[in-house]
Structure formats: C-alpha cells, structure tokens
Amino acid sequence: MAISRQIVNLMASEIKVESQLGVGGKFSFTVKFPLSYNWVNSVSNLGGKQIIGYTGNPKTILIIDDHWENHSVLINWLQPVGFITPEEKMLLMN
After folding, report:
1. pTM score > 0.70 for this model?
2. Is the domain of 24 the same as that of 50?
3. Could you report the average pLDDT of every consecutive run of 10 residues in the chain (94 residues)?
4. Which residue in 32, 26, 28, 35 sits closest to 12, CA to CA?
C-alpha cells in the first residue's frame, strides 16, 4: 500500500479508501492524463531517437489489465523492443 500511495502521489493524486467491517475495502484514485494522438510514434520516438530495444539479458514482464485492448497494446509495444511476456514464453517452451 505504501508503494501504491507513493506512485499515486507522484501523479498528483491520492488514494481514497472506503471500508466496511467484515466486508472489505475499496481503494480508488483519479488521475488526469492529457489526450494523446498518434501515441505509438510519440512514445517510440523520444527526442528524435527511435527506441529499438535495450542492452542486457531479455527481461520477462507480466502485464495485468482487465481490458484486453490495453493488454494487447502493451504487448505489441514491449515485445518488439526485446521484452518477453509470459504468453510469449509459453510459446517458446512448446
């Protein structure tokens, strides 16, 4: 919880908690992000430099999102630059 609070604070927000004894708690926060157009090119081309990968051993990254669209976007952005996702790892093992 402390790490989550720090991340949310860095995004100029705060975590709100609703709790009921014997039921559980609900944690929420709201963050405003600017609307981005053509984000694939803007993210992969920072400061006039194209992101093509990183140095070092391949890293496995777990992507968790309840919307398959978001999950798919992240996988399609991270795999080409050298990250391995659990889905890809399972394909490599077969």
Report:
1. no
2. no
3. 85 91 91 70 61 79 82 83 73 52
4. 32
In angstroms, how far is CA 74 from the centroid of its own chain? 7
Amino acid letter, residue 39 = W
Residue appearing with tokens 């975590």: 15
Residue found by looking up tokens 């992507």 in the block: 63
70 plus 80 within the same structural domain: yes
> CB–CB of 66/44 below 8 Å?
no
Token pair listed for 12? 């100029």
Helices and strands counted in the chain (H then E):
4, 4
C-alpha span between 38 and 36 (Å, rounded):
7
Same domain membership, residue 79 and residue 41: yes
Amino acid at 13: S
Q: Residues 18, 8: contact at Cβ < 8 Å? A: no
Amino acid letter for position 8: V
